Amino acid sequence: MIKNVSFLFFCLLTVLFCGCAASGLPVNFVEGTVVFEGQPLSDALISFIPKINGNGIPAIGKTDENGHFLLTSMQGGQPNQGAVAAEYIVVVTKNKDKPSRMEYSTGIDGKPMGVGIYESLVPEKYTLPTTSDLTVTVEKKKRNQFNFVLDKK
């Protein structure tokens, strides 16, 4: 469960990194679907994280009620529909709406502070770039279509 908090921090850094990226890299249309347990996975966050040796810029999307997503990336602080041509690790997250428990620690001011721990609704292996086995290559000047079927384990 702590990994979910770590992933949220990772997403924040990704967004900050995206805003600082150089503008002008061509983006390519990317869409797809996500299925889990035989059903479209709605309201899930899809993140394309560039592989370490890649040239990509992180891109994100959210699935609709049919499990369909469109990716958006940021360059120079501006949103662009699509992703830069590169190899990516794909991360899929969807959490329960309410925290399953709270963890408390002492804040800088010495007062107790709580952090909600949200239960993941998808297998944990898909929620972090270090454990996800989903990888794709976004190709130049192409309408890229990716369909993911998530396993229970």
Highlighted features:
14 strands; 4-stranded mixed beta sheet; 153 residues; 6-stranded antiparallel beta sheet; Immunoglobulin-like
What can be said about this structure in brief?
The protein has 153 residues and is mainly beta. The protein has one helix and 14 strands, in the order αββββββββββββββ.
Describe the structure.
This protein is mainly beta and 153 residues long. The protein has one domain: Immunoglobulins (Immunoglobulin-like, Sandwich). It is 12% helix and 42% strand. The protein has one helix and 14 strands. Strand 7 and strand 8 form a beta hairpin. The longest helix is centred in the first third of the chain and has 18 residues.
Q: Topology of this structure?
A:
Blueprint: H1 2-19, E1 27-28, E2 30-36, E3 39-40, E4 45-50, E5 59-62, E6 68-70, E7 72-75, E8 78-81, E9 83-84, E10 86-93, E11 101-106, E12 112-117, E13 135-138, E14 144-150
Parallel strand pairs: 2-14
Antiparallel strand pairs: 1-9, 2-3, 2-6, 4-5, 4-10, 5-7, 7-8, 10-13, 11-12
Number of domains: 1
Largest sheet properties: 6 strands, antiparallel
**Which structural class matches the secondary elements?**
mainly beta
Average predicted confidence as pLDDT: 86
SSE sequence, one letter per element: HEEEEEEEEEEEEEE
Gap between N and C termini, in Å? 16 Å
Secondary structure tally, helices? 1
Q: What percent of residues adopt helix (DSSP H or I)?
A: 10-25%
Mind telling me the CATH class? Answer: Mainly Beta
Question: Looking at the structure, what is the overall shape?
Answer: globular
Name given to the CATH architecture:
Sandwich
Stated plainly, the CATH topology is called Immunoglobulin-like
Please report which band the strand proportion falls in: under 5%, 5-15%, 15-25%, 25-35%, 35-45% or over 45%. Answer: 35-45%
Which strands sit side by side, in order, in the main sheet?
A: 8-7-5-4-10-13
